[in-house]
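Key result, reporting period 2: structure in, sequence out.
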């Protein structure tokens, strides 16, 4: 989790210290040297996070079966947030990335909490 926080902190750094632009994506969006460096801890931390969720997929699946409305809402909200995040990079929705990142982050946090609180699988079924 600390690696993800470090990556996000580096991505949130002021543009004055980001260094030269490596790839221009759209007006107001570009990949700078600091952004590229920030991807290393961000991707490493997210890899551990998603690996942990993968290992807890059985309890999460059971939770989704028990509360399908919540599961569908979470999947929709995560997709909507990720869609806003991606669309904002390629369009004039300049600050909508923050809304998308917030929605996606809240859903991801809720899934992590659900994975930690789900009872472990018992039995061979």
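The corresponding designed sequence is given below.
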């Amino acid at each position: 989790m600390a690696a993800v926080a470090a990556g996000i902190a580096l991505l949130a750094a002021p543009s004055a210290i980001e260094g030269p632009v490596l790839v221009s994506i759209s007006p107001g969006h570009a990949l700078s040297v600091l952004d590229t460096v920030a991807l290393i801890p961000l991707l490493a931390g997210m890899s551990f996070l998603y690996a942990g969720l993968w290992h807890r997929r059985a309890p999460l699946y059971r939770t989704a079966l028990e509360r399908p409305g919540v599961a569908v809402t979470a999947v929709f909200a995560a997709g909507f947030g990720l869609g806003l995040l991606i669309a904002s990079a390629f369009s004039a929705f300049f600050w909508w990335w923050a809304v998308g990142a917030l929605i996606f982050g809240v859903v991801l946090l809720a899934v992590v909490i659900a994975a930690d609180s789900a009872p472990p699988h018992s039995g061979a079924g």
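The chain has two domains: 1-54, 56-125. The longest strand covers residues 21-26. This case is discussed further under Risks and Mitigation.
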